[in-house]
Write a structure and sequence with these properties.
Layout lengths: L5 E6 L7 H11 L5 E7 L3 H11 L3 E2 L3 H6 L5 E4 L6 H10 L3 E4 L7 H14 L3 E3 L7 H11 L6 E9 L6 E2 L16 H16 L2 E9 L4 E4 L4 E4 L5 E8 L4 E7 L8 E7 L2 E7 L10 E6 L6 E2 L14 H19 L7 H20 L2
Parallel strand pairs: 1-2, 1-4, 2-3, 4-5, 5-6, 7-13, 8-10
Antiparallel strand pairs: 7-14, 9-12, 10-11, 12-13, 14-15, 15-16, 16-17
């Protein structure tokens, strides 16, 4: 067996079109010189066995703790729903395992901060899945801004739709309408996209917000029943980056007939417009247009083809591939380049400030 291979165990992997199968597995397959997925633990042993058979994995563990304790697993990947992140991540850290967890790290700032402190004590590689930060288009956008395409950045404006958190959903996603579950429009699409925005433009030093719930109920299309909604479906935020540039954003629940992702950056020497099909910046194909002061109109700013080489063709696993590439380097070379639990806490704090700002206006 190749000792340079990092052996991966999943807590929460299902072959039936769920996120880990759609995003993580193709990303890891494209990094087969670094990773090998060896096992899975799900809510039941039967489910784990089904997944292991579907993906030809050698181990189906009876419980998540069995996976965590196994000497066959180097990196524990947690891809279950948000309320279970804390329990499984904490157990993996206590066992001294490297750990990758889907965003958000915890169900709220308190859980995330505790996990980040434990990860620091254990000294293991720890990462969180804010993969918009590693999107090829975001890397290119960051390069354009840093190299002065816009001159000095004056402001940025973001208008996007959450996709979910609209008038209708399906039973499998009904938990998104329960704020106590931690998977809200604020934490998921807005949080992911905010991570990407900060990757390009830096930290936000001051922020103010209003969050509004316009839909009291959500209709479940496959059960033909309505359920109560406790999640805000309108998020309006403004703030100031540490650079002094202005920031404004409006996230809307559901999908519109217009542009579902529009991000503009305005500077002293020009403007950039980034568009996508949905407000989940971590999973939409981004298109970049730009114009400098001497240009009559915007033109497409094509990402150099070499930036896509040896990466998955589909945008979702390609962005996740970016995170795993950094994880492999961190484990093998001792670097700390993947988005860490400390990075996650910083983002959790910003979202917490947004929520507190909105609550103070009620």
């Amino acid at each position: 067996m190749n000792k340079n291979i990092i052996k991966v165990g999943f807590i929460g992997l299902n072959p039936d079109s769920h996120w880990a199968a759609m995003a993580h597995m193709p990303a890891l397959k494209a990094l087969d010189k670094d990773f090998e997925v060896v096992g899975v633990a799900n809510s039941t042993l039967q489910s784990a066995q089904k997944t292991a058979k579907a993906f030809n994995l050698p181990y189906a563990f009876e419980t998540p703790q069995d996976l965590i304790n196994s000497s066959e697993v180097d990196l524990v990947v947690v891809t279950v729903k948000v309320p279970y992140h804390y329990e499984f991540v904490k157990a993996a850290l206590k066992a001294g395992k490297h750990i990758h967890c889907e965003w958000p790290l915890g169900n709220g700032l308190k859980e995330a901060a505790e996990l980040a402190e434990l990860a620091k004590q254990k000294g293991v590689v720890n990462s969180v899945g804010t993969q918009m930060r590693t999107a090829v288009e975001v890397k290119y956008l960051k390069k354009l801004v840093s190299e002065g395409y816009l001159g000095e950045v004056l402001s940025t404006t973001l208008v996007a739709d959450g996709g979910n958190w609209g008038a209708e959903t399906i039973a499998d996603l009904a938990y998104l309408s329960d704020k106590t579950k931690g998977a809200t429009m604020l934490t998921i699409p807005f949080g992911h996209t905010l991570a990407g925005v900060r990757e390009v433009l830096g930290e936000i030093s001051d922020i103010s917000a209003r969050m509004i719930k316009r839909r009291e109920n959500v209709y479940i299309t496959d059960t033909k029943k309505s359920i109560p909604n406790s999640v805000e479906d309108q998020i309006m935020v403004n703030g100031i980056f540490k650079s002094g540039a202005a920031f404004s954003a409006h996230y809307r629940g559901g999908l519109s007939k217009g542009t579902n992702f529009l991000w503009e950056i305005n500077g002293t020497k020009g403007d950039i417009k980034v568009t996508g099909d949905i407000g989940h910046g971590q999973m939409t194909q981004l298109h970049i247009l730009g114009a400098q002061n001497s240009d009559e109109k915007m033109k497409e700013l094509l990402v150099p083809e070499e930036m896509y080489l040896e990466k998955p063709e589909n945008v979702i696993p390609r962005n996740v591939f970016g995170i795993y590439s950094l994880i492999a380097k961190d484990i093998k070379e001792g670097t700390r380049e993947a988005p860490s639990f400390q990075d996650a806490v910083s983002l959790h704090k910003l979202l917490d400030e947004i929520e507190k700002s909105s609550n103070n206006k009620k």
